[in-house]
Amino acid sequence: MKKAFILLVAMIMTVGLLAACGTGEKASKKSGDKKVLTMATSADYPPFEYVETGKSDDIIGFDIDLAKAISQKLGYEIKVKDMDFSGLVQSLKSGQADFVLAGMSPTEKRKKNVDFSDIYYTASHLIISKKDSGIETIEDLKGKTVGVQLGSIQEGKADEINKQVPIKIENRDRIPDLIQELKSGRLDAAIIEDTVAKGFMEKEQELAGFAISDDPKEAGSAIAFPKNSDLTEKFNNELKKMKENGELQKLVVKWFGGEQ
User: Fold this and answer.
1) Helix (H) or strand (E) holding 211
2) What's the CA gap between 257 and 137, in Å, rounded?
3) Conformational region of residue 143, where left means phi above 0, alpha means psi within -120 to 50, and beta covers everything else
4) What is the pLDDT of residues 166-203, one digit of tens each?
């Protein structure tokens, strides 16, 4: 009888532990009275999201401030999860994250897997290379090795260029990797969003660049959510309010120092 009682207690404890483990698999959780949302990003994209080396391990940037502002208005706290850009969409599909803010463009391909908010920032792209490379036009890329970030919209831009002039396309997980490979000569050029590229070019005086146009239907950055998430409409409503009352513009001026 005693043995049976002990076995029963052990079974109850095991079921309890399994249940506890199961609840931990969801991205969102409770913290006090506030619900915590997991935001996935790729913190290699200044000034959208990055770590200020030597000062703090905290991820800062335009997207971080935007996420905090909207979440606070909705009564949420956020936990920022850093990962490679190529894994962001999958993090939403697998339930590892509640939303993605990472300077992500709402392409038709991505819309098949996730939902998007309205555009919150619009930018174009730069092809950057060393100043003495002689690369000043698309035609100058003929036969060159061009780097792009894995999973980014710039991969598509490189494919478009390859249809105009033959190039060798190589991808890397992180933007700093592209910059380093440019400087070392392993890449002849790289395609990077203009705001981000200009930030690196200010630090790396040996680099120069020129702009290329984008499909206006897929231009700009938006917040990504799992398909049919109830957060999409909530975030979008607050984003619209921030556009109307000037809050979004204040963040743009803070992080980009200009008008949008």
Assistant:
1) strand 207-212
2) 28
3) left
4) 999 999 999 999 999 999 999 999 999 888 888 889 88
